[in-house]
Amino acid sequence: MKLILAIIHDEDAHKLTTALNKNNIQVTKLASTGGFLRVGNTTMLIGVEEDRVDLVLNIIHEKCQTKKQMTIANQPYSTSPEGYIPYPIEVTAGGATVFVIDVEQFCKF
Asked: Taking a C-beta distance cutoff of 8 angstroms, is the pair 104, 6 a contact?
C-alpha cells in the first residue's frame, strides 16, 4: 500500500477529485496555504495499492497543469510597510508537488 500526498492549486482540486473518484480512487482533501505566494492550496491524501500508483500519478499530471500568473514581489509580512514599493512579477503557479510514501499498516474502522 502507498500513500500519495499531492499538494495542488485550489483551482485544480475539484477536477482532480472528480477524475480520481471516476476511477474508484478515494481521496481526502485538506486545505493548506503555500509559503511563497501565500495563496490557498489543497493537499490530497490518497491511499492506493502499489499497482495503481502510476494511474494516480498520471491523473494528477493531467489535471494539475502549471500556469503563469502575476503577483506582487517581496510582499512584507508586517502591516506597516514603510518604504515598501510593490512591483508585479510573473511566476509559475499550479502544477502539483507529489510524495509517494510506503504505508506500513492500513486500518479502516
From this structure: no
Please give the residue range of the domain that contains residue 64. 2-74+87-102
Q: Is the pLDDT of residue 76 over 60?
A: no
Q: At what angle do helices 13-22 and 53-63 cross, to 10 degrees?
A: 150
Our count of domains for the chain comes to: 1
pLDDT tens-digit readout, 28-54: 999 887 765 566 789 999 999 999 999
Residue 108, in any domain of the structure: no
In a domain, 81, yes or no: no
pTM: 0.75
Match 512579477 to its residue by C-alpha cell: 89
Q: For 44, how many CA atoms within 13 A lie in the half-sphere containing its CB?
A: 32
Q: Residues of 72-93 as b/e, b for ≥16 C-beta within 10 angstroms?
A: eeeeeeeeeeeeeeeeeeeeeb
Q: Is residue 80 a part of any domain in this protein?
A: no
